[in-house]
Each structure stands twice: as C-alpha cells, then as structure tokens.
Amino acid sequence: MIRPGPSLDEHALERMLPLLPRRGPIEVDLGDVEFVDPHGMVSLLELGRWLAREERPAELHEPASDEVDGYLERMGFWGQASRFFRGVEPRTTHGKASDVLLEATPIERAADVHEILARVRARARQILVRHLGYDDRAIDRFLVALSEVCQNVLEHSGDVGFVAIQKYAYRESLGRNVVKIGVSDLGVGMRATIEGRLGRLRGDVEALEKAVLEGVSRHADPGRGHGLRAVRETVLAWDGKLAVRSGAARLALLPAWARGKAREERLTPFPGTQLFLTLPALTPLH
C-alpha cells in the first residue's frame, strides 16, 4: 500500500515512488491525506498515467476527509484520475470553486493552451486582482509565464501533460496570498532535451542547472526555446518559488520565506518534467 502522508504536495513523488512494488498489485491510499495542492495533484495524476502506460494500473483509495474529497472534486481531479486509476468513478464538478484559477486540466494540443489561458484570464479579476493585488500588467506577465510552461510540455517533452492552479493564504510564513501552478508531463525529461544541443552531461542535476539557472534551451536560435528563462525572471522579480524535478534530480529557486533544499540528487527516477511555481501576492494580507 502506497501512502503519500498527510500532505499531497510538491514532494509527494519523493514519498510515493520508493514505495512502488516491483511486481504485483499496486494500491495508492489517500485515506490520511489532509492537504492537497496543485503540485501534488498533477504529480499523482502523472503517476497514475505512468503506471497505466507501463500496464501496471493502480487502485486509488479516496481520502477519509470529506473536505479533501470535496476539494479534489472541485478541482476536477476525479474525472481525470478515473482515466488511469482503478476504483475511481468520474464525477461532475459541483460547488463554488472561489479560489480555483484552473482545475486539473490536460495539455494535449496547442488549442488546449489557448483555452487554458482564456479560462484563467476569465477568473483573473475575481482572484488575481481581488486576492493578489495584480494589475493588468501583472496579469499579462502571469499569463505569459503560464503560457510558457504549458507550451514547454508540447514543444520539448514529446508528450502531453497536466496543469492545475489555485490560490492559497500563506499567513504565517509570508503574510500574503500566493498562487500555485503545477505542471507535469511524462516526456523525455530535461536531460535529453539539453543533451540534444550540448552533448553528454554529468547527470540530471546539471541539465536542470543549465536549463533553469543559465537559460539553455535545445534551440540555438536566440529567439526560440527560452520559455523557462522568462518564467525564472518572473519568479525572481516577484520573490516567488520555482522547483523543477526531472529524472532523478530536483532544483529549486528558494526565496527567503520558503523552506527546502536548492538541489537534490539520487531521487527515485521518474520520466518527464514536473514544474512547480509559487507566486506571491503583490499586496500583504490584512
């Protein structure tokens, strides 16, 4: 039985992957989960998709908490999870999702990215302006960053992916609202992308350093393939947090208010790239 613990967040894969049995039935139990964010949600969906792709579909047990279960329903998680996990019935999303910018949404075609941006823009006034103090310029910059990370799934990974976005209140650690963006795919991964241009690298962490810190892309053309650089500039300008996991490594840009490790190596390998963004409000909580 695989249990992610009380928090299904950006570190959920690190807790679940080492528990995967080499053979036999697989069960993922969310019974103890008390908190879920978009980072953990897209990670779990990709875990289910990967297991199904490997012809080892897992059974998924629902959380004991009605609040967590309802949140996952509002985020459209169960409808997507039913595609990959056994024992999951698709549900129609009910209830008011006042702080949800984007439910768990597949990224499979260029048209999906345009629809995602349109849906987020439609909710921007309600959430980004009211709760995060964004003006039109900030909203445009936010949408550019979102477009870049979604386009990367289609242009670089050779795969499809998922994205989810929600607003949270970080009262104790930051004193501000934040918006969390989780994007994940099962594609070739960062190392294969960078090695296609630079040649052999020492490992996944070097690939992440090249891509995230130096802005290296698979394209030599200076006008193409630098979406991650634009995302990094937005994160630094807004004192946000960016974490990217690919292969067996993880690299994070950590502001003073965030906890965690800047570099992690020798993680349990997992295909593709998982990108987690946390962008603070421009105005403090009252």
Give me the number of helical elements: 9
User: Total strand count, please?
Assistant: 11
Strand content: 15-25%
What's the story with the biggest beta sheet? Answer: 7 strands, antiparallel
Can you write the helix and strand succession as a string? EHEEHEHHEHHEEHHHEEEE
Radius of gyration: 18 Å
What class do helices, strands and sheet pairing give?
alpha+beta
Shape: globular
Low-confidence runs (pLDDT<50, min 5 residues)?
Answer: none
Mean pLDDT: 91
Amount of helix = 25-40%
What's the N-to-C terminus distance? 43 Å
Strand order of the largest sheet: 5-6-7-11-8-9-10
Indicate the multimeric state: single chain
Describe the structure.
This protein has a seven-stranded antiparallel beta sheet with strand order 5-6-7-11-8-9-10, sandwiched between helices. Strands 1-3 form a two-stranded parallel ribbon. It is of the alpha+beta class and 286 residues long. α5 (110-129) packs antiparallel against α6 (136-156) and α7 crosses α8. It has helices at residues 12-16, 38-53, 66-74, 77-81, 110-129, 136-156, 189-198, 204-213, 227-237, and strands at 7-8, 27-29, 35-36, 59-61, 100-107, 161-170, 176-185, 241-247, 249-253, 263-264, 270-280. It is built from nine helices and eleven strands. The longest helix is centred in the middle third of the chain and has 21 residues, at 136-156.
List the keywords.
single chain; 286 residues; alpha+beta; 7-stranded antiparallel β-sheet; two-stranded parallel sheet; 11 strands; 37% helix; 22% strand; globular
